[in-house]
Prior knowledge:
Chain A is mainly alpha-helical. Helix content of chain A is 69%, strand content 4%. In chain B, helix 2 crosses helix 4, helix 3 (71-78) crosses helix 4 and helix 6 (138-165) packs antiparallel against helix 7.
Amino acid sequence: xxxxxxxxxxxxxxxxxxxxxxxxxxxxxxxxxxxxxxxxxxxxxxxxxxxxxxxxxxxxxxxxxxxxxxxxxxxxxxxxxxxxxxxxxxxxxxxxxxxxxxxxxxxxxxxxxxxxxxxxxxxxxxxxxxxxxxxxxxxxxxxxxxxxxxxxxxxxxxxxxxxxxxxxxxxxxxxxxxxxxxxxxxxxxxxxxxxxxxxxxxxxxxxxxxxxxxxxxxxxxx
Amino acid sequence: xxxxxxxxxxxxxxxxxxxxxxxxxxxxxxxxxxxxxxxxxxxxxxxxxxxxxxxxxxxxxxxxxxxxxxxxxxxxxxxxxxxxxxxxxxxxxxxxxxxxxxxxxxxxxxxxxxxxxxxxxxxxxxxxxxxxxxxxxxxxxxxxxxxxxxxxxxxxxxxxxxxxxxxxxxxxxxxxxxxxxxxxxxxxxxxxxxxxxxxxxxxxxxxxxxxxxxxxxxxxxxxxxxxxx
Lengths: 222, 229
């Protein structure tokens, strides 16, 4: 079990960005994105500047840009929405390549694409350069409630265990010739989800008892 | 689907962020009553479960598939306050470690997909439980209906937020029709799967289902005389 050592998006490295304290990185990401979101949508020069700053940070971190771009597919549904905007928004019309589209919709669509892409790239940079353990310590330093950080710590620790369990259940289903193709197969999948909940819950109980037997009193030792 | 950065304007994002902080804060206090010192490990494991179940794809038709949101499911399984904590944790981790959903939209995502689905799901579930006969077999059906209602209501909440702080002037009534229409369909899937999943759990370990506790407490131990043939 390799849980607790990096995660799917983490890119191992020793750059200044990797070594920077996690709480500063979270604050930097938050501050950067608030500025990006608050920037009026037609200030294209400002967005170019933000992108430049982001690319410089990525270059310092030595995470290959292709590594980040490949993982920015999470953005795709909203790219689709952004492309749709010029056609559904109202307001004065304008011509683009001979097609009449809404001026406001076009601007909003471009702004959404630009801001969303900056957001995904910046978040990916944080995820790629920060170990989960450092991130949790950073969040605690940011005065997030200890209890919430603990819940997150347990979630991150057992994420791979629970998803691994689900993966094994899928292999077991497929080994028995199960292939989910339409809603008629939902009961099987729902029973799997139910079994997964029972297993996760019981694992939580076992973990809790194991912690109690090691002297846990409701907060983690430092 | 997570709201990305730049979808809503800065003031709206800040407002939902503040609301999310308040909701998570209240839930932290209240969840201790549901779980006491078990809170951290149990909520952590349930959050991991929600995360995993959101990756479980349910085939819809001809190659398309959907997945569970899990708000109402979590509310029925572990209680509303713990559920809000679990859902919020899932969104925070998805945002910071998986770049899913923008960090300025984190509050929006927590309020829409965490707090709204849990609150609506739980209220509908409780209302149905009060109205319907108090039997164990009713619990999965009530959970399914609650899950069905929670999805379009969350979509409607999104439309309201968009009306306040949207960045493009789409006619709100057509956006509302489209969003609620699509999410009614998604809600059907969410409802059916929640019904089936809760049914599977109630059949095996009814004691683990928070929403079934009141029903279980009313059950009395029956000692039947052995029938000698």
